[in-house]
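Supplementary Note 3. Input sequence used for the single-chain structure prediction.
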Amino acid sequence: IESIKGTAGDDTITLANAQTKENITIETGEGTNKVTTGTVTATKQVITIKGGSGNDTFDVSASKIAGSGFNGSSDNLRYTVIENINVGDKIKIANGAGSTVADIQKVNLSPNGNAYANFAQFAKETGLFSTAIVDKKVYAFSYQNDTYLFYNQDTTVATEFEVGENIVKLPGVNIANLNASLGTDGEITINGL
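The predicted structure, written as discrete structure tokens, is reproduced below.
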């Protein structure tokens, strides 16, 4: 599957597991929608979800990094993009035994006047992995006027995004204005943008 388009009403869209396409686009309608992504097998993959005006729920917890990690040094980025995120929307970035999100933290990373090939290289070279060392925590950081949510799976100091972790890009979201809370179910609710 490469493209799914919802209806004008309330949609429930669920991707099957073992998605292999490099680019998958899901476009919801304007109702109250729920999108659930599946596991991925591609070594390079971007799943783009275009939300509507309603209060949507995006469960991307199954679309974790698989196969091998990455740090931006090669063309093997794997992440989910959620466009048109709204106040009231919910994101489930982790799921399964021992994977519930425990906390959210904003991290200020400075480019120091340097240019980077992509968000992964930026994260590596500006110190994200020396900061993101708390297990089951989501770290929010900004790169080129977009906000990224990174789910860290363990307490070791890494040098790259690792297998089993998850990344969500929120295009055009100013991290300074992002106000999000964490529910007991591990879902992240967007309270302000």
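The first helix runs from residue 119 to 125. The longest strand covers residues 137-143.
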